[in-house]
Design brief:
By secondary structure, this protein is α/β, with parallel strands linked by helices. It has 2 domains: 2-166, HUPs (Rossmann fold); 179-249, Pantoate-beta-alanine ligase, C-terminal domain (Pantoate--beta-alanine Ligase, Chain: A,domain 2, 2-Layer Sandwich). Helix content is 36%, strand content 22%. It has helices spanning 7-13, 30-42, 70-79, 90-93, 109-113, 117-132, 144-156, 186-192, 194-203, 208-214; strands at 2-4, 19-24, 45-50, 84-86, 136-140, 162-166, 221-229, 232-241, 244-253. Helix 6 (117-132) packs across helix 7 and helix 9 (194-203) packs antiparallel against helix 10 (208-214). The structure holds adenosine monophosphate. Residues 24-25, 31-32, 34-35, 139-140, 142-143, 166, 168-169, 176-179 line the site of adenosine monophosphate.
Length: 257
């Protein structure tokens, strides 16, 4: 596996053949690794980007304490069969004078809860798509609204990449794996389980939102909403447990391809 930090080096590391890209912010867990393994199985060249993207964090967000361990991430990526790990600096991605943004008109859910978040996500992903020129880019269902936003962008701007979605990987108790779970104390982790349990209660209910809200068990949700992603209906929610913000979703109807 090659680790490259500069755009110029990245160009030289690419070769012909079906190429897969897995964009990440690092602190790898089984969710990230499932995307890398799928890319490995389906592509000739697998590129993973590791970039804690300042543009998608708000002023009050947790970017300063976001977990980082490049050495561990590099060895996990190598084990998963990744060919190129792209680890740019913020200056490499946003050099002096950077002034172009991709603003997908998303509403509800994370778009309302984190103004500017998807602008940062869409901008960095379009940059990564242009740099890596993947045939397929792999994303997790965990961030379902992100998938909806990126598919909208790809269609609207005629970006030649296929967006694949893979199921959310959970721990044995049902909590969706997230780099941010590292912040949770054991007591908070127990409370956090209220989120997947509430979504599960809503999944088969006549009124999923009301049923999930009723099952929150004291956990305070920022929102519980239905989200349409390419004809599939998802029940999505966000909640704060202590100082940690968690998001999760389940499919209520249809399938995510
Ligand atoms: P992140 O590093 O958190 O930006 O996530 C990078 C990619 O991994 C995104 O496409 C996420 O949706 C995906 N991902 C994060 N957590 C999970 C999970 N528990 N299961 C599946 N995919 C995930």
């Amino acid at each position: 596996m090659r680790i490259v930090r500069r755009v110029t080096e990245l160009r030289l590391a690419l070769h012909d053949g079906r190429r897969g890209l897995v964009p990440t912010m690092g602190a790898f867990h089984e969710g990230h690794l499932s995307l890398m393994r799928a890319a490995r199985a389906q592509c000739e060249q697998v590129v993973v980007s590791l970039f804690v993207n300042p543009a998608q964090f708000g002023a009050r967000d947790d970017m300063g304490r976001y977990p980082r361990d490049e050495e561990r991430d590099a060895s996990l990526a190598e084990e998963a069969g990744v060919d190129v790990l792209f680890v740019p600096s913020p200056q490499e991605m946003y050099p002096e004078g950077f002034d172009t943004w991709v603003d997908v008109d998303a509403t509800g859910g994370e778009a309302r809860a984190r103004p500017g978040h998807f602008r940062g996500v869409a901008t960095v992903c379009l940059k990564l798509f242009n740099l890596v020129r993947p045939d397929v880019a792999f994303f997790g269902q965990k961030d379902a609204q992100q998938v909806a936003v990126l598919r909208r962008m790809v269609r609207d701007l005629n970006v030649g990449v296929h967006i694949r979605v893979l199921p959310t990987v959970r721990d044995a108790a049902g909590l969706a794996l997230s780099s941010r779970n590292a912040y949770l104390t054991e007591a908070e982790r127990q409370r956090a389980l209220g989120l997947p349990r509430a979504l599960e209660a809503g999944r088969t209910a006549h009124d999923p939102v009301a049923a999930a809200r009723a099952a929150l068990n004291g956990l305070e949700a920022e929102y519980v909403e239905l989200l349409d992603v390419d004809g599939a209906t998802l029940l999505t929610a966000a909640a704060r447990v202590g100082s940690t913000r968690l998001i999760d979703n389940v499919i209520v109807e249809g399938e995510l391809a």
